[in-house]
Amino acid sequence: MATDPMVAELTEIRTKLGIAERLIEELAGRIAGRERPEVEAQRNRVRASFTEVIAQAEQDRDYEGAFGLQCQLRDRENQWAREDRNADEGGDFDEKAVPA
Fold first, then answer.
1. CB 86 within 8 A of CB 98
2. What burial class does residue 26 get, using C-beta atoms within 10 Å of its C-beta: 0-12 exposed, 13-18 middle, 19+ buried?
3. Which of 12, 28, 32, 57 could form a disulfide with 66 if both were Cys (CB 3.0 to 4.6 A apart)?
């Protein structure tokens, strides 16, 4: 029965791997929770910038420019929504990997 120690060792390795995977998931959740306020603050700064520039374009009667900026902001909001869904599903955030 030369394989019995190997089976036992494999079982132990699988158990440790399961524990490590659960720990990784827990730590990833903790990290995401800490980063979330910073992400929202940055998004709010971007929204405010867009809003200011849109208001200035409208004041200058550049309605086409204002509309273009509104479209860009809408696209950015959609991108953020995709990123949030990806993060909620446990995926890693990679801006280049998020489809348009």
1. yes
2. exposed
3. 57
Written as six digits, the tokens of 42 are 């940055």
Over the stretch 11-68, which tens digit does the pLDDT of each residue have?
Answer: 889 999 989 888 888 887 777 677 788 888 999 999 999 999 999 999 999 999 999 9
Note whether 70 and 54 are within 8 A (CB): yes
Tokens of 27: 């730590």
State the Cα–Cα distance between residues 57 and 21, nearest whole angstrom. 51
Give the whole-angstrom CA distance, residue 64 versus residue 51: 15
Backbone angles phi, psi at 73, to 5 degrees: -65, -40
- Give the Cα separation of 47 and 13 in Å (integer): 49
